[in-house]
């Protein structure tokens, strides 16, 4: 038993927090009071607690220790292991825990504190897992001294939480988010839930409303639909009943009841739920209402986001907390004492414990975060209240505030920003990993975001792409390592799709969610991007009234240079490409191009029969020290054993709750040294189409330049090439005789003459070991006009 009364066995005595590590960081105020200086002069300190060996799945040794000694922590640790749901591979496992101090500011949520909690790792044969127990305290002196946050309440809609959330909703800094709402907009229908205790909420039309109406919108997971647990929906047969008599309370699912309770707690009389406010078996009503969903969420008083529920039948107001109260007594200041709470987060598959990742996991672990429709619902909501497994989180625009006192910035679509590889396609990498109960909803679920973007700029949208950045957008890569389909299956699905979603050139056309990881950033890291096509356009045929919803067909018509693949594909073998299969093409045994195919290849080579290369664009190679931007793939075999990796990892999209899963990290086709060659895009990219210097070849080029006329992805200080004083283009790489890096698509003939499918992407590096590479590879090719479908 420790000095404060916690029952601990001899091994677990180390769980007591010894704050003597703060002794070199204590400061005294003029009044004599002491405080812990939260500067980051100290490096991370791990103070070992103990190590345990036990046997899954029941962990009898921890259970025995608790029974014999009454040790609270042995019981708590065993419960955490059981609740984690991890199926350990071997027996026994070895658990090592330590107190974590001075985490040197790397992890955002503890930059202001000294103590982050208990961290550790579990050895399971050759596998290693990370484990984290977050520390919190509602005692102000303890939280200030240790630099920790508060403890989430056991009841979600308790008085303290309602007052906390209401104060944020009423804060002028957060009410300003409502200024982005559409004046006078109301959804077609709302649920009138009345006051607390009102039975049978009623479906009402808003067409007769003349004054302001505040409503909440619900964002949730429908879950699997089955006869045992049917989804409550409004249909043509029930519409009149729900409008006149109301919806019987006993028919409401748990999520709907919870949402009504939330509205009542904040004094909101009206609620919008898609399943009830849209007539689900009326196609025309469904299409009309879904095209307005972005306005429904943007104009809500706040959006209720049910993260802790994975179906409409599971409550999101029930918390899944696993906490242990401990008593704390400072060894440096006896006046600092009180209760401290350990909160088990989870066990992850990575051996390194990073508390910031555990923080973001309250979002990424939720089924809600993996569903397709919730992406638009979240992005369009100006204010949202997230009900997670562990605590409430409030968001106003891009700022998040957690119930325990933690706050952090996020990143969402800025509809006023012109879509580019950075702000649109970067977000689409996250969207592309989401799941749909009906994959036909992929395009409709983005329709609202598209409409919002078009409102602020005049770009043209086609099946997930924007015409102002069409060529770069077409150069997406497919991470096929999880796919089961081979070449024949891919071509069969493209020729006779069981359900048509989008054309083959769109990254939204692949329906194997969780198998296709997408990378759309690669070419954005290159210098002096310009078109090598004489003509490029794209269009779609809508399937209904919504031009941005479901489509019947889509075509990209391109006039460019095409050559047959010069050789079969040979797979690249090294330790770098863990998440995709990369191939090379050769001419006379020398490097010609690096390729990524859209299907799974199990062998070391793949036939190039019927496959061609379509040149779309070129980039130049430039570095201040004169070295090339690439390290060639045929040389990597000599480097792969050294532990050096030249492959690029995905850029963080800025949204902490949507970090890329390890298995979907983008892979660089070009193997760029990103630290020295990449530069960020500006938000004001425009097409530069004028040519005024001898260095320009005068063809219809597409060069992206910023408002100062300089290529936005190449700062002037980083280029070796002289820029034209008038148009700002790189004079050297615009010369027709210059050999630049080539970028394009791998295509396969479709059923009709002149039509092709996109089945891969390639880059041919101009400074490769062979003489026939780069744009020179296409010098002898004539221009052809084709349709990619």
TrEMBL record:
<dbReference type="Pfam" id="PF06985">
    <property type="entry name" value="HET"/>
</dbReference>
<feature type="domain" description="Heterokaryon incompatibility">
    <location>
        <begin position="215"/>
        <end position="377"/>
    </location>
</feature>
<dbReference type="InterPro" id="IPR010730">
    <property type="entry name" value="HET"/>
</dbReference>
<protein>
    <recommendedName>
        <fullName>Heterokaryon incompatibility domain-containing protein</fullName>
    </recommendedName>
</protein>
<feature type="region of interest" description="Disordered">
    <location>
        <begin position="632"/>
        <end position="660"/>
    </location>
</feature>
């Amino acid at each position: 038993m420790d000095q404060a009364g916690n029952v601990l066995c001899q091994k677990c005595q180390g769980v007591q927090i010894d704050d003597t590590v703060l002794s070199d960081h204590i400061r005294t105020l003029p009044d004599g009071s002491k405080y812990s200086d939260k500067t980051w002069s100290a490096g991370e300190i791990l103070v070992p607690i103990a190590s345990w060996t036990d046997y899954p799945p029941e962990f009898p040794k921890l259970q025995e220790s608790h029974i014999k000694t009454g040790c609270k922590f042995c019981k708590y640790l065993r419960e955490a292991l059981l609740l984690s749901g991890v199926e350990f591979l071997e027996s026994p496992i070895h658990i090592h825990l330590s107190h974590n101090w001075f985490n040197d500011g790397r992890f955002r949520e503890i930059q202001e504190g000294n103590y982050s909690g208990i961290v550790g790792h579990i050895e399971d044969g050759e596998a290693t897992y990370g484990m984290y127990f977050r520390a919190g305290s509602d005692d102000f002196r303890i939280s200030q001294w240790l630099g920790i946050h508060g403890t989430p309440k056991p009841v979600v809609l308790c008085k303290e939480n309602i007052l906390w959330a209401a104060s944020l909703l009423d804060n002028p800094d957060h009410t300003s988010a409502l200024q982005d709402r559409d004046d006078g907009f109301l959804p077609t229908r709302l649920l009138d839930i009345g006051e607390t205790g009102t039975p049978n909420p009623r479906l009402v039309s808003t067409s007769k409303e003349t004054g302001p109406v505040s409503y909440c919108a619900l964002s949730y997971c429908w879950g699997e639909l089955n006869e045992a647990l049917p989804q409550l929906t409004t249909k043509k047969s029930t519409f009149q009943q729900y409008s006149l008599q109301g919806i019987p309370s006993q028919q409401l699912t748990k999520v709907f009841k919870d949402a009504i309770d939330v509205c009542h707690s904040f004094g909101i009389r009206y609620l919008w739920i898609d399943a009830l406010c849209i007539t689900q078996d009326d196609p025309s009503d469904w299409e009309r209402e879904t095209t307005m969903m972005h306005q429904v969420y943007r104009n809500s008083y706040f959006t209720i986001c049910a993260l802790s529920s994975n179906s409409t039948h599971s409550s999101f107001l029930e918390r899944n907390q696993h906490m242990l109260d401990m008593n704390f007594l400072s060894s440096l200041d006896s006046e600092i004492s009180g209760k401290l709470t350990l909160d088990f987060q989870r066990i992850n598959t990575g051996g390194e414990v990073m508390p910031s990742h555990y923080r973001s996991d309250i979002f990424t672990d939720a089924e809600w975060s993996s569903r397709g429709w919730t992406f638009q619902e979240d992005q369009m909501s100006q204010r949202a209240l997230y009900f997670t497994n562990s605590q409430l989180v409030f968001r106003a625009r891009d700022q998040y505030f957690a119930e325990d006192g933690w706050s952090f910035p996020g990143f969402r679509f800025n509809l006023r920003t012109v879509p580019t590889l950075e702000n649109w396609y970067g977000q689409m990498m996250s969207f592309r990993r989401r799941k749909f109960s009906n994959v036909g909803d992929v395009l409709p679920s983005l329709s609202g975001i598209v409409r919002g973007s078009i409102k602020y700029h005049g770009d043209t949208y086609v099946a997930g792409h924007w015409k102002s950045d069409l060529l770069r957008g077409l150069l997406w890569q497919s991470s096929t390592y999880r796919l089961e389909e081979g070449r024949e299956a891919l071509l069969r699905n493209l020729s006779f799709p069981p359900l048509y979603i989008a054309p083959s050139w769109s990254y939204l056309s692949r329906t194997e969610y969780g198998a296709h990881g997408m990378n759309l950033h690669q070419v954005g890291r290159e210098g002096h991007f310009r078109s090598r096509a004489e003509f490029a356009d794209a269009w779609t045929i809508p399937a209904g009234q919504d031009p941005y919803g479901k489509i019947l067909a889509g075509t990209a018509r391109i006039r460019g240079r095409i050559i047959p693949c010069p050789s079969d594909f040979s797979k690249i073998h090294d330790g770098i490409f863990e998440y995709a299969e990369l191939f090379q093409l050769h001419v006379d045994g020398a490097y010609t191009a690096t390729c990524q195919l859209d299907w799974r290849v199990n062998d070391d080579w793949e036939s190039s029969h019927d496959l061609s290369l379509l040149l779309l664009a070129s980039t130049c190679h430039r570095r201040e020290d004169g070295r090339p931007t690439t390290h060639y793939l045929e040389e990597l075999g000599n480097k792969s054993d050294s532990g050096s990796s030249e492959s690029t990892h995905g850029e963080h999209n800025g949204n902490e709750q949507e970090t890329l899963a390890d298995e979907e990290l983008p892979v660089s086709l070009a193997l760029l040294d990103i630290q020295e060659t990449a530069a960020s895009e500006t938000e004001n990219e425009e097409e530069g189409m004028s040519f005024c210097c001898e260095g320009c070849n005068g063809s219809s080029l597409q060069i992206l330049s910023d408002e100062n006329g300089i290529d936005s992805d190449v700062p002037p200080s980083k280029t070796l090439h002289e820029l034209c004083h008038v148009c700002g283009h790189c004079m050297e790489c615009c010369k027709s005789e210059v050999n630049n890096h080539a970028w394009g698509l791998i295509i396969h003939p479709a059923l009709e003459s002149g039509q092709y499918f996109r089945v891969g992407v390639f880059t041919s590096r101009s400074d490769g070991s062979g003489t026939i590479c780069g744009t020179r590879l296409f010098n002898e090719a004539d221009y052809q006009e084709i349709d990619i479908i």
